[in-house]
Amino acid sequence: MQPFTFATTPRVVFGAGSLDKLPEVAGVLGPCILIVTDQGMVATGLVARATETLQKAGHAVAIYDGVIADPPERVVLEARDMARGCDATGVIGLGGGSSLDVAKLVALLAGSGENLADIYGVGLAKGPRLPLLLAPTTAGTGSEVTPISIVTTGAHEKKGVVSPVILPDVALLDPQTTLGLPPAPTAATGVDAMVHAIEAYTSTSPNANPVSRALAREALRLIGAAIRKAVHQGDDLAARSDMLIGALLAGQAFANSPVAAVHALAYPLGGHFGIPHGLSNALVLTKVMRFNAPVCGEAYALLGGDIFPELAGRTDSEAVITALEALSRDLGLAPSLRDAGVPQDALDLLADDAMKQTRLLVNNPREVTRADARAIYEAAW
């Protein structure tokens, strides 16, 4: 067995209603807490609920609600400045993956004084950071257990800060906070979590490991059984719970056995056309799987049995890929790049940008050339 390391968030708090127990786990954050979130979350009343609970426990609370999807550097720096201005002693990220990613970097930059431009890449962020708690309200990114934060730089490019320093102290998962998530983002974020698990299982990273593979399979079992109900019967707490835990397990898996070509090809779709990250992954997932199948088809077939019990024991990876395409249609996701508003004359630009994602492409089971990336986008169009 290859040597490996496995790192994750040291404390996970799960349970319906656990958001109201914030004071029980917020002691590590100190007396003055900055909540990093978005205006949509503010409108749900969850931010006010968390704030009131913390204030009753004696914490001073400031709120940064300017997070947007695919957050640009500007958002990170605004939130950092607010943290410094209010002398924050700790940070809470409350919301979807974008809010959690921003919260990680705010805690780091406010705590260490590092410059954002200097820490893009793997292992460049050194810390220290402010104490950090992340509370996801979507079941997708698994950001609450990953040492990764993605930022949009310039006009369209995405870069990542990857460092164990930004793993939070606490992940707080309350499935009740996901009940109001509409069908479309429920579907997109759920498929995002599935992609994390699939790519973690088949990653060729030097740190690919049996712990990540075991977590990936359990994540797919939970999500595969729950995602249709979570999308079509969004008030089903059991399904929402399984989705949230599945996303967490998938996050733990890919945090240590990194993702690959699906994400590399998905990032330019978000950067250029504003397509939500989960949907971007869904649009290219099965096309990348078909490309990879000659070298990892058996692994895909095995995972297919976890997602779709009726396929257990099958050795045909195409059956799994076809079933995933049917699942995507059933969930109401756009079936093609064309349907998602991507013009055909943009495929060359997308291929060029995808090839810049060397941090991800190096983990793919099969080498991806620029011509391969272009052909995958064409198949997805």
Would you give an account of this structure?
This protein is an alpha/beta fold and 381 residues long. The chain is built from 14 helices and 9 strands. The chain has 2 domains: 167 residues, 3-Layer(aba) Sandwich (Rossmann fold); 199 residues, Dehydroquinate synthase-like, alpha domain. It has a 6-stranded parallel sheet with strand order 1-9-6-4-2-3, with helices on both faces. Strands 5-8-7 form a 3-stranded mixed sheet. A hairpin with a 3-residue loop joins strand 7 and strand 8. Helix 4 packs across helix 5 and helix 7 runs antiparallel to helix 8. The radius of gyration is 20 Å and the shape is globular. 57% of the residues are buried.
Q: Which key terms come to mind for this protein?
A:
single chain, 381 residues, alpha/beta, Rossmann fold, Dehydroquinate synthase-like, alpha domain, three-stranded mixed β-sheet, globular
How far is the first residue's CA from the last residue's CA? 40 Å
Oligomer: single chain
How many distinct domains?
Answer: 2
Main sheet characteristics: 6 strands, parallel
Structural class comes to alpha/beta
CATH fold topology of the largest domain: Dehydroquinate synthase-like, alpha domain
Global geometry:
globular
Strand content: 5-15%
Sequence of secondary-structure elements = EHEHHEHEHEEEEEHHHHHHHHH
